[in-house]
TrEMBL record, chains A, B:
Protein name in UniProt: Gamma-glutamyl phosphate reductase
Classification via NCBIfam families: PRK00197.1, proA
Keyword Oxidoreductase: yes
Family of the protein in this entry: Belongs to the gamma-glutamyl phosphate reductase family.
Amino acid sequence: MSIKEEVVKKAKAAHKAARKLANLNTNLKNQALLAMADALEENVDKIFAANKKDLEYGKDKGLSEALMDRLLLTEERIKKMANGLRAVEQFDDPIGEVLEMKKRPNELQIGKVQVPLGVIGMIYEARPNVTVDAAGLCLKSGNAILLRGGSEAINSNKAVAEVISKAAYENGIPEGAIQLVETTDREAVQVIFGLNEYLDALIPRGGPGLIQAVVNNSTVPVIETGVGNCHTYIDNEADVVMAKDIIINAKTQRPGVCNAMETLLVHKDIAEEFLPEVIKKLQELDVEIRGDEIVQKLGTDIISATEEDWETEYLDYILAIKVIGSLEEAVDHIHKYNTKHSEAIITENYHKAREFLNVVDAAAVYVNASTRFTDGGEFGLGAEIGISTQKLHARGPMGINELTTTKFVIYGEGQIRE
Amino acid sequence: MSIKEEVVKKAKAAHKAARKLANLNTNLKNQALLAMADALEENVDKIFAANKKDLEYGKDKGLSEALMDRLLLTEERIKKMANGLRAVEQFDDPIGEVLEMKKRPNELQIGKVQVPLGVIGMIYEARPNVTVDAAGLCLKSGNAILLRGGSEAINSNKAVAEVISKAAYENGIPEGAIQLVETTDREAVQVIFGLNEYLDALIPRGGPGLIQAVVNNSTVPVIETGVGNCHTYIDNEADVVMAKDIIINAKTQRPGVCNAMETLLVHKDIAEEFLPEVIKKLQELDVEIRGDEIVQKLGTDIISATEEDWETEYLDYILAIKVIGSLEEAVDHIHKYNTKHSEAIITENYHKAREFLNVVDAAAVYVNASTRFTDGGEFGLGAEIGISTQKLHARGPMGINELTTTKFVIYGEGQIRE
């Protein structure tokens, strides 16, 4: 079978299963989710054996320590994946909910019902947990899924997908609902990009390179996710103690994730009072500082920031700092460089807070809080399938509701159009 | 200026205007809409002069009668466009509405606010009224618009766009909010497909060729609209009098639109009783019938239906008819050939009605009514910008709410992530 044939065959099977999945009983879906969770825990040895292969191959290939850590599966991490499925079991089933229902003057009764998207394609990098999280959320929302993980994790993904799909099918989930593309050839991704007949949406999860490749090449509708060049603007009327705590949290609590701060903007009137201490503290925490001319004068070991720094999502212990003349200038900088993910202002001023919330164009806009909160769990959506940075369909953290669409159902008594 | 430069310049201007439009006062937008409506009526002579050029050119080019009729602007049609803008003025402004607001355990207050998409691109064919309708809906919902109409209507579109944008800008709408691409070169469309930096969504309106070209070539997120290969299934437990009225309405009341019926499916147990009279009546109304073998025996002058007939959206006085063994078979036929637009069942049976509503995958699913009702006005959405046949973002008739997205606004008091 050619690569194209393999991928199309799997997509077709998912498409076929999706029809049955759309009207599946909630209790049955929940039972399957619990069985999938148990199966993961019962098959740790099998999963470890597969994971070991990936780790060995990764070591030979010279993967970075961070990547190797992402690949690694431990008993605790498998338990976490299983508990993720148990958490999804607890969610309300969104499918079949009537969001509105109205009667028209001609007595037609028109309702809007929540239904699954159908088949969701996921293209992601080296985290095997995405395989489980995505399968669980899709199953609960009545969607079939076509998974395409990174080649580095292929053995782990295969083992995990086999374990959960076997448990799912044994518990009444239609065969074909969970599909993993097993070839690691890049051609498979090109094939997926053109599967409009079988896929209803494609969600990429990974670095900017992966996401841009999907956005630029897929004819299947894409939900763009994840890249976060996030800013925090410290207004001249900020509570400086609060500002300092928020900055340190937004930069250092977990710098490798998309909602971490990448650029700090500081109003010129408080730069001299505020920055020296903050820069020192950040440097103590191993953060490399890159700044404009004024910033460079307010500390030591500060690299001169270039245009590229304002554009970069470091995902690392690096922070760009710029001194800004006004709220308006801060907003202009943000709009010039941001990726529409998460932006924050720190201020005590009522009008500036409202202004910032109103005018900044991003998925999440904050007053007096760390951008690190942009997350499905923190926003109360339960689990998340990704963070949308586009405007169509969903924006910000996407939970189970964002894996649904609607259809109009119309109850008539013989109405015809005049 | 090259074609690319012209198009990019207009998109940039729209993008710039969109920032201001997003926070525009509702009263100001309403005043502008009324001024635009008045300006259309005050400038009929100018618009007629431009329209005459298009009509002459169309005549030379040998456009079909139907296309010539679409192109033609009359005093009545201009009044209708103006009244469309007045109707939009009456709509509630969707922008700024807080759709939900909750408090998290850490006291963060997280709200979801309705905001404009930003800049919407419209690629459409030869109806100058789309220029006005789309501009009005986008303006009310705080979006800038980049219009690209068919070359046949270019002079009419230019005149109309000039009249309404002048009136808009004179009434406080930011300059640049309404952009018409004036070159008729096809290269302009290729440029639009890649304007991800400036456009937030692209909506094609027209025939299947246009829509497929946009879906297959645009990297800007597309909302696929309009193609409707709609079915009506007459169950063996149907009220045959009602069924007949609905069929005639769905096929002949306005066959050239996307919600008209294209294929009739009839249960085998009532085919002999039901079809002869219906076929005769349809033929009297100039409908050409194409049918399977059984259908051909139940009337005269019936052409043998081919695979192509089941696939075709005729948009004409042609109907394909197939005799079907069961509800399940009808659903299978629909899923094989439909474009996920509008599908109907005619039945008196409670269970079959519910089954059809549940399992059929389409934007609008009907029991005992004509598919012709799938329309923003008929569904109570006010005006419509198109009918989405995809599942992401919007499904079915799209009104002003479908031209919006959301953003999360987060009110903190210094919260940091643990």
